[in-house]
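Trying the structure run again after the queue cleared.
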Amino acid sequence: MISPPMIVDSGTRVNIDYYIEDNVDEYSQEDIMDYFMESSTDDVEVAYKELAEDDISIDEIKLMRIKFMSEKAN
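Done. Tokens:
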């Protein structure tokens, strides 16, 4: 089975906005997207360490990475 990050990394666009809206706070969404826009890496572990003080979960970062890769990187 192919995982969503692999699908997005291969260039396929996905729309998970409906899920993100229900599961990730608006301010967290902005913080995570800003992080990925400015960061030199899209590694979720690095992002988690950077955003940990903002009370952002690794699952929220993973979801937003998928959105970021789908919208900005492809």
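The two ends are 22 Å apart (CA to CA). Worth checking whether this holds up in the mutant runs.
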